[in-house]
Amino acid sequence: MKNNLDIADHMRLGEALKPLRGEDVLIIGSGFSTHRDGVPAKDRLRFLSWFHDTLTNKTYSPEKRKQLLLDSKSEPTFPFGHERIDHFLPSVVACAAASYQPGVVLYEDSEMSHVRFD
Question: According to the 3-state scheme, what is the secondary structure of 5-38?
Fold first, then answer.
């Protein structure tokens, strides 16, 4: 993680890691889907809905998915998921390493989920 917690910088990091996928290297972005104590579950779930849609919607082009991630701090539900962006950025890195292709939600609850990118 870069100290500046900049989304675009972390996208570039994921893009730089992309060639490793062709060398059978597993890239893991470990964080939390939500990171906010005291926020009602219904609000966290609103953010999770946006988060999962952004990462998994098969109708989105890679360019649209990248733009949604770049603009994620402007998403009205974002504050319900994250006080700080640190736990969100590993998903950004993993998605960028997968060329912004759609992922698949493997597990979810009101605080975390597992998304796989092939």
Answer: CCHHHHHHHHHHHHHHHCCCCCCCCCCCCCECCC
